[in-house]
Design a protein that fits this description.
Strand order of the largest sheet: 2-3-1-4
CATH class: Alpha Beta
CATH superfamily: ACT-like. Chain A, domain 2
Structural class: alpha+beta
Mean pLDDT: 96
CATH architecture: 2-Layer Sandwich
Number of domains: 1
Shape: globular
Largest sheet: 4 strands, antiparallel
Helix content: 25-40%
Strand content: over 45%
Length: 81
């Protein structure tokens, strides 16, 4: 399967899930191009974007695992290439 480039947008509302989220990101680190995290202290949430280059099924599995964490939501946007 051919690789796709995508961005996974993550909102963390339950900071207790941060350790599990980092474990997932570490599991898929070979596919991660870069990541940026922004703590939004006033709202007590974190906003994270993760750029990946991976087969579509790997991206989907990663986003699915992230989205199943309590208090965490994830959405994926794919490039056309």
């Amino acid at each position: 399967m051919e690789n796709r480039v995508a961005i996974i947008g993550i909102i963390v509302e339950n900071l207790a899930s941060a350790e599990a989220l980092n474990a997932i990101l570490h599991e898929y680190s070979a596919y991660i191009i870069g990541r940026m995290g922004i703590p939004y202290r006033e709202k007590k949430i974190s906003i994270i974007s993760v750029a990946v280059d991976a087969p579509e099924d790997v991206i989907s599995a990663m986003a699915g695992k992230i989205g199943r964490l309590e208090g965490v939501s994830a959405k994926t946007a794919y490039s056309n290439c």
